Amino acid sequence: MPEFLLGAAAFVLGTVALGLMRLLRGPGHADRMLSAQLLGTGGVGALLLLGVATGVGAIAEVALLLALLAAFASVAFVSGIQRSDGRGPPSATAPAAADSPGEHRRETA
Amino acid sequence: MRLALDILTIVAVSLGAIFFLAGTVGLLRFPDTLTRLHALTKADNLGLGLVVLGLLPQVSGPLSALALLAVWLLALLSGSTVGQLLAGKAAVPDPDRAPTLTPGAGASHD
Amino acid sequence: MASSKAAAMPLIRAALARGVGFLGFWLLLAGPSLGQSTATGVTTDLAAGLAVGLLAAVVATWVSLRLLPPAPGRLRLTALARLARHFLWQSIVAGFDVARRAFDPRLPLKPGDLAFPTRFPPGTGRAAFGAITSLMPGTLPVGTDDHDRLVFHCLDLDQPITAGLARDEALVMGVRRNGSDRDA
């Protein structure tokens, strides 16, 4: 079974590497960011497989860290673009973000 | 019993790997940013879910199994939130994008 | 004054519930390595580990209360279970759908935008609805239009997308009674 899991980990890693071609091609910044997102999910999958195959439990923690980093990278990308644009996003989460400081002030007053 | 669980692992992990491949193929073949994002979020989340499902019978105890599920849940949560954020970003025209390189950029708004 | 005291109670309840949840989650993730240190009998390691976990849970609770104030209304567990089942099944369908289109040599896509007049007011409920629908077959929320309708990018406009979205919306709305209907 470890051999099979190692093979599967290598395969998933291979698909991630293939997906990184989108990083080279672009054309937009968002397209390149998709590759980073793929590296996040695919990397987590490969690491989990590797961790169970080798029996090294700490690898699962590396997987967790990678998932967090991928999410932070994308959030930083999106919020960085917004700031340099100087205009709000059309995203559904924007009103929620705009609401919460107001609510917070109401509670502390 | 052991054999049945091993078969479950092999089937689920193989299927998961195929969905990872589908996500990559979609990312490379789909015509514009938003359709690529569809491929990435949906196929990869299912792929990761199947890999986790396949690994469940192979870990030592119920606590490790729960931890695996927790990793998957976190990835699901961040994947769906980030996908939505990136979609909002991709929907507005990208000022940094060179216009000569975007033959398929208008396709999403036909 | 009396009203602010009455308003503080749900806040404390929410803080406690979330704190316990975060601590449990941390224990779950750190569990294997903590178990190792109890087996070897190194108790200072264990105490230090637990202290870090406690600190992390407190900080996480504080951040979550700041970013996501507790909403009024009760969580309905049966509705949540129904939503979870629907969500799991539909995300499997979504994965197969996207994989089929990606592997098909003809690349059968009919992408386009679709406006959906949602009943969710802007806020947490709408964000949750967006996150869930982004993993449903063929839909991806990209924002709101001038008429406060949610705009979805779709992989295939020929599919019955609006009906599916309405069903998702009803399921998400059922989870928190009165919670998402409050006026901002």
Write a structural description.
The complex is a heterotrimer of chains A (109), B (110) and C (184). Chain A is an all-alpha fold. Helices cover 84% and strands 0% of the residues of chain A. Chain A contains five helices and no strands. Chain A is flat and about 45 Å long. Chain B is mostly helical. Chain B has three helices and no strands. In chain B, helix 1 (2-29) packs antiparallel against helix 2 and helix 2 runs antiparallel to helix 3. Chain B is elongated, with a radius of gyration of 18 Å. The termini of chain B are far apart. The model of chain B is unreliable at 94-110 (pLDDT under 50). Chain C is mostly helical and 184 residues long. Chain C folds into two domains: 2-67; 77-175, no CATH class. Helix content of chain C is 62%, strand content 9%. Chain C is built from five helices and three strands. A three-stranded antiparallel beta sheet of chain C has the order 1-3-2. Mean pLDDT of chain C is 78; it is low at 179-184. The chains are: A mainly alpha (109), B mainly alpha (110), C mainly alpha (184). At the A-B interface, helix 1, helix 3 and helix 4 of A face helix 1, helix 2 and helix 3 of B.
Keywords:
heterotrimer; A: 109 residues; mainly alpha; disordered C terminus; B: 110 residues; 3 helices
Termini gap of chain A:
61 Å
User: H/E series of chain B, N to C?
Assistant: HHH
**Which stretches of chain B are low in confidence, meaning pLDDT under 50 for 5 or more residues running?**
94-110
Major sheet size, sense and barrel closure of chain B: none
- Determine the structural class of chain A based on helices, strands and strand pairing: mainly alpha
Topology (elements, then pairings):
The complex is a heterotrimer of chains A (109), B (110) and C (184).
Chain A: H1 2-19, H2 21-25, H3 29-54, H4 58-85, H5 94-108
Chain B: H1 2-29, H2 33-55, H3 62-91
Helix pairs in contact in B: 1-2, 2-3
Chain C: H1 2-39, H2 43-67, H3 77-103, E1 112-116, H4 124-133, E2 139-144, E3 150-154, H5 161-175
Antiparallel strand pairs in C: 1-3, 2-3
Helix pairs in contact in C: 1-2, 3-5, 4-5
